[in-house]
Amino acid sequence: MRFKINNRFKSLFGCLLIVGLLFATPSIATQQDSVVAETTAEAPSTEPAGVEAAVADTTATEDAAAETATVSTSSSTSSVSAAAEEETTIDPQVYKNFTYYVLLFLVVCTIVAVVLKVISIYELTRKMNGQYNPLANNNIQATLFIVFLVLFLAFIYYGYSVWGAWAWKPAATEHGKDIDTMFIVTTVIITFVLVVVHILLLSFSYIYRMRLNRKAYYYPHNDAIERLWTIVPAVVLTILVLFGFFTWRKITNIPEELQKSALQIEVLGEQFMWRVRYPGADGEFGKRNYKLTTGTNPYGIDFNDKSAWDDVDGADIVIPVNRSVRFHIISKDIIHSFYIPDFRVQINAVPGMTNYFQFTPTLTTEEMRDQLNDPTYDYVMLCNKICGSAHYNMQKKVVVVTEAEYKEWLSKQNKYFNDAVQKEFQLSDNKESQDLSTASLN
Amino acid sequence: MSSTVISHGAAHHDSHDHHHETFLTKYVFSQDHKMIAKQFLITGIVMAVFAMVLSILFRIQLAWPDKEFPILEVFLGKWAEGGRIKPDFFLSLVTIHGTMMVFFVLTAGLSGTFSNLLIPYQLGARDMASPLMNMLSYWFFFIACVIMVASFFVESGPASAGWTIYPPLSAVPTAIPGSGLGMTMWLVSMFLFIVSQVLGGVNYISTILNMRTKGMDLWKMPLTIWAFFLTAIVGLLSFPVLVSAVVLLFFDRSVGTSFYLSDLVVGGEILPNEGGSPILFQHLFWFLGHPEVYIVVMPALGLTSEIISTNSRKPIFGYHAMVYSLVGITVLSFIVWGHHMFVTGMNPFLGGVFMITTLIIAVPSAVKAFNYIATLWRGNIRFTPAMMFAIGMVSFFVSGGVTGLHLGNAALDINLHDTYFVVAHFHLVMGSASIFGMLAGVYHWYPKMFGRMMDTKLGYLHFWLTFIGAYLVFFPMHFMGIDGVPRRYYAFTEFAFMEKWVSVNLLVTWAAIIAGLAQVAFLWNFFSSIWKGKKATQNPWKSNTLEWTTPVEHIHGNWPGEIPTVYRWPYDYSKPGHDDDFIPQTTPFSETMSSNLPHDFEGNEEAIRIQNEWNKQNNREIVE
Predict the structure, then answer these.
(1) Are residues A189 and A302 both part of a single domain?
(2) Which family is this sequence assigned to (chain A) (predicted)?
């Protein structure tokens, strides 16, 4: 009995909700409220605009009450008056829209509830007529798994062909080509496994769905098969591991003479920008000491070291093509990550230590643009380690040019040891010598 | 020892009424494993809903980076001024979403619930080894949750350095506002949480080792128990390391030490810290952090094993292999943490070693997946909602697991580290898979927990919307990652190459919203069925394990009389020669003469002799 009453209440509530919405619809046609018109324009096109505005209208009285409530709170609480003021500036339409979506969701819930009720009534009548198949639901779910399998495979295919094409660009560095080969080999293997496993998993679910008067096959183990599917993955993995290990060593373990002969560039990460330092004519970076950081010397270069005097401040990262470049990655404040997707290059910038990444670009920016058929394309280096509010925009343009263009560009860049720094350096130098003399006196 | 426990419990039970249970001792400070399990579950569900709402908030930001949603300002105030989520708050959202999901939902909510519920039930114990510790475990967890949620009410906002809280970002409040009081609360919360895990873990292990009923030797335990056992061991060995990481970070922040800090100039200010190493934190963190993902996924695998076997009406294929692969995962999980740090500047040779160990761990995982499929083969599959979720779990475990071959490979990781590829990978393999394992468990053991059934149709609806939704959300992210889109980016608007992904983000966000709303079907189903669900029978799934021999109504001590004795392994489904398609563990072999196999007697010659005699008398031939 209790069940019945309860049920009636639910359906009554649902009916009321729908009827209310229907009634509200025509009333809005006469309304010419500009605010309403505005929001209907913004409303998603899939929704009938009239209904939305109608709901907004029917709930207007409640919103008015809510509004007055917020006003009263703002007057009563003086300490947070600023916050309250912000609240009052919120357009009442916002509340209306919100209520509308909540109501819409409730309607969807009601429809779902009604559909489920209809199904259960249908099942009950089948039961009464003695036609009910207790496995009907089971069969439906099994069939859905097969439908899902087809859709899933189509989805994978779509993903690979459309999004895969968006995502995939060949690497523009030497070591990047090895990585790409390995990536493709791995992807082929895993795609094969993914597809086969899903075909087996979902088609077995369908084929072996429960039937009356059938018993499952008692099959607790088969050592031969188990050994087989331990050994096969192990062998495949061994191949991948070796392949990967040697590639990784090749990338990270560079002989010392090659390290020295490479072009050296230092990149310093800080919130939320990158600074680039070229060693200048002497090929050596001046010493850096974070304690020397000042407004004019944000890099913290120690200008007592004379090799710092010709260090070049690069506006962008510009590197010559087909020449090995060794990047020294450091950080001023927190951990950042030096990441150039097109080059398959990434290493973290960690405060207190220097990380290195050496690679050889093989395509100039121009060549890449031609290849992609995109005349505005640029390589970009971006921060890939969470570092704060502007993490999402911490970038530096990377340009790969010919050797001649590189030399020309480099000659146009500013030096870190500029006029302002020189002046300050001389001042501090004098002061320091004074300090030293007083110290020695003491 | 165990016999004294039994007789004590039994005697206790006959005079049941002298127990005075107040509301407080029954529902709040309960020491009963069944109630604690429900407490863990409901707290876990609340946390999951909270974390899911956070995820939808940041998905909204990612899909419509230029659009204003004034309603957000109503709820979030200054964090969404003008209806747009602020970058700092965005980072808080991803941080707390990750923390809550990994620790509160998938660690405490999953293994807290089902270890507590099933360990005593399936082993035949009256309760946990230490009910008091069990209660404390829940309350420490609860306080941890409260503190974490409370950090949203702090002026500077909740922690926002990512769930991995790498210092110096998490250590220096001037670097990001969330590293102020919010971060301190995160650390305190995590400390309490670890205490909870250690209390729980000690309890699970000692219960499993000491309190099994008569006949329940280790090789007769259901795979769920094996999974909880190994999970507890992993947790007990790795969580204390996180304590040290957390405490040292707390010192760096609040006492002025320099364990993790050195050479910092933050916001133009030169900090005095010297000699620390941020990499040290990462080693300590990932020494827990990697085992943690197995802490999350192993219970889900255990639950799935049990559910797939029960509903396929077929023994789990390769029971021993399943156990050994869990053991393999347990051992290997401790020596792979370095694969999170390939590009941090860790010694590259070490990176190579970690890469080898990491890829080895794929072998036991693959064995598990194949064994599940072999279990389905020639089964008689009954699609309860629990079974649907279990199949979904296997699907996610495979789809997410295979991309581990990319990420575990140091050379490939150079380009994929910290991109959306990683996000896709772990959300499928440990996020969705574990959530599905947990939901499968909830649907399956609901009758045991609440004595009522959940609605099947709503369960199906919930499954399909969530299953399809999860794939639509996470699958496209792989491609963003391959293109080099980093995770934790507030907007994709600043880079030309990312603009094409905004359309995909729209798809992902809509899928997330719909899948999120679909959870209402679950919540409604879960909470309304507590009072209004159909009354459950004692063994609704025709299952073999011990928990289904207890009465539907919960009683103190689980079994009204003596604890049943166990005679056989838990997977005798559809055994040829037996009338029913299941034989509970409590059925002695003497009652199933027509279906016994020589293998069942484990070399007991007397039993084999009796069986052979019976076979001769009844003209039974055994075909194996």
Answers:
(1) no
(2) Belongs to the cytochrome c oxidase subunit 2 family.
- SS3 state of residue A326: strand
Q: Is the pLDDT of residue B381 over 80?
A: yes
pLDDT value, residue B280: 93
* pLDDT for residue A85 is more than 90: no
Query: Which of A179, A226, A377 lies closest to B318 in CB terms?
Result: A226
* Position A408 in a domain: yes
What secondary structure letter does DSSP report for A395? Answer: E
Q: How confident is the model at residue A21 (pLDDT cuts 50, 70, 90)?
A: low
The β-bridge partners of A327 are A265, A357
Q: Taking a C-beta distance cutoff of 8 angstroms, is the pair A176, A343 a contact?
A: yes
Residue A46: per-residue pLDDT: 40
Residues 290-329 in A contacting B (C-alpha not used; CB under 8 Å): 290-291, 293, 295, 300
Domain count across chain A: 3
Gap from A216 CA to chain B (nearest CA, Å): 4
Between these two residues, B607 and A83, which has the higher pLDDT value?
B607
**Whole-number mean pLDDT of chain B?**
91
B611 occurs within a structural domain = yes
Q: Would the CB atoms of B266 and A271 count as touching at under 8 Å?
A: yes
Report the candidate in B123, B290, B127 with the shortest Cα–Cα distance to residue B213.
B123
What average pLDDT is seen over chain A? Answer: 81
B84: CATH: 1.20.210.10
- Residue range B217-245, pLDDT digits in tens: 999 999 999 999 999 999 999 999 999 99
Put simply, the chain A residues between 99 and 118 with a CB less than 8 A from any chain B CB are 105, 109, 112, 116
Closest CA relative to residue B115, chosen from B20, B18, B40, B211: B40
Q: Best of B325, B370, B397 to disrupt the A interface by mutation (most A CBs within 10 Å)?
A: B370
Question: Which residue range is the domain that position A41 belongs to?
Answer: 2-128
Instruction: Please identify, among A252, A273, A301, the residue that sits at the C-terminal boundary of a domain.
Output: A252
Of A99, A128, A157, the residue that ends a domain is: A128
What band does A380 get if pLDDT is binned at 50, 70 and 90?
A: very high
Range of the domain at B91: 1-7+28-221
Interval B414-455: pLDDT, tens: 999 999 999 999 999 999 999 999 999 999 999 999 999 999
A220/B475 touch (CB, cutoff 8 Å), yes or no: no
Q: A241–B356: do the CB atoms touch at under 8 Å?
A: yes
Contact A167 B482 (CB under 8 A): yes
The DSSP element (H or E) to which A398 belongs, if any, is strand A395-401
- Average pLDDT rounded to a whole number, residues B192-197: 95
Q: What confidence category does residue A12 fall into, taking pLDDT thresholds of 50, 70 and 90?
A: low
Q: Are strands A317-320 and A345-349 parallel, antiparallel or unpaired?
A: unpaired
Q: Which residues are bridge partners to A288 per DSSP?
A: A301
The residues, ordered by sequence, that sit 6+ positions from A358 with a Cβ below 8 Å of its Cβ are: A254, A258, A259, A262, A324, A325, A326, A327
Inform me whether the C-beta atom of residue A282 falls under 8 Å from chain B C-beta atoms: no
Nearest to A137 by CA among B548, B458, B205: B458
